[in-house]
Amino acid sequence: MTNDWSFLNGMRIIDLSRLLPGPFATQSLADLGAEVIKIEEPKHGDPGRFLGKDMFARLNRNKKSLTLDLKSDEGKAVLTDLLKSADAVIESFRPGVMDRLGFGYEAVKAMNPAIVYCSLSGFGQTGPYRHRAGHDIDFLALSGYFAVPSQVNDKLARPKVRLSDYAGAMYGALSMAVAMASAKISGKGQHLDVAITDAMANWSSPLVRIAHDLCEGDPDQMSFVMPDNDIFETKDGKHIAIGLFENKFWVLLADMLGDEFPYLRREDFATNRLRNKQKHAVHGMMSEMFAAKTLEEWEVLFRPTDLPWAVVYEDMRLFEDPHLNERGMFGELGEGENKTYQAGYPTKFSAGLDEFRLPPPDKGQNTDEILKGLGHDEAAIQAMRDAGVI
Questions:
Q1: Is the pLDDT of residue 3 over 60?
Q2: Does pTM top 0.85 for this prediction?
Q3: Which of 160, 169, 212, 384 could form a disulfide with 24 if both were Cys (CB 3.0 to 4.6 A apart)?
Q4: What 3 state SS string does 214-275 have?
């Protein structure tokens, strides 16, 4: 299967980013057909490699790897040649680093006026926090994420995945795709300043306003904190998720189980408004109800119904899920010890998409190929290798 239909085919992106946000953004664009050349430091490569083969692999398939010492004149010359032929470049350093290397936006724009230059950073290129160090947990904290309650008995806990990093990555990828499409038509590139904290604030701030301006920070007053839309522990210590905030589902549950659990038929629980006025009572009763049966018993009971419920996967059962497997969400790349398990691109294109084309590259795997494409011969490449440039 190919994706020759994609306008990203033939697009060259120079990836100067590291760790998670930038590499995930460029992997998304590589999945969609772009040629992504990952620039790595010659000795150690992307720091993400030290997190383990599988951690690196989930962010870097379908890319080429070029090792390059950007502090050397020879390395800078190679990067200059690459940027002149590129459609986009992405970097994830703190503001000022690329300028000091001689590859800030204005310098690169002078080389290639049509280039899209994406700066993906924690706090952006402007503002008093722009030079601060930060990682996912810091961006979540400053975005207001933790100011939004989600459960009746809410706890302050970090998400299970690096949520803010992925949010910034997706805004970066989307913005780059749009800007490259524009540059393809107009011949004019632009600078994209993508801040991870901004991305999360875009998601969090509307609910922070509701929660603390309109509801005084009290979850009991918040209509979106619902006692019947939560995760509950079962008799065997496992968990089930259920969302009954559409009242028809509460009625269905009450019809099914009202004989065994009479409080489901209480008149003062009959509507969303009434249940939200008694959140702790409703939540407590539902907790008792779910604790009365094992997860398997609940599955057998709910499977034939139209209730909105789901098993909470807390182990490898995820990869056995028949729905996700039929949707093609999982794949493998590589052979033997180099085999890695991959999550597929989530959008299904009717024209087809081959996102499992190339396994993540070894450090510098494509160095010779790329340099030869820029006109360097074997002797010149070996000289650069001997000098530690590549």
A1: no
A2: yes
A3: 169
A4: HCCCCHHHCCCCCCCEEEEECCCCCEEEEECCCHHHHHHHHHHHCCCCHHHHCHHHCCHHHH
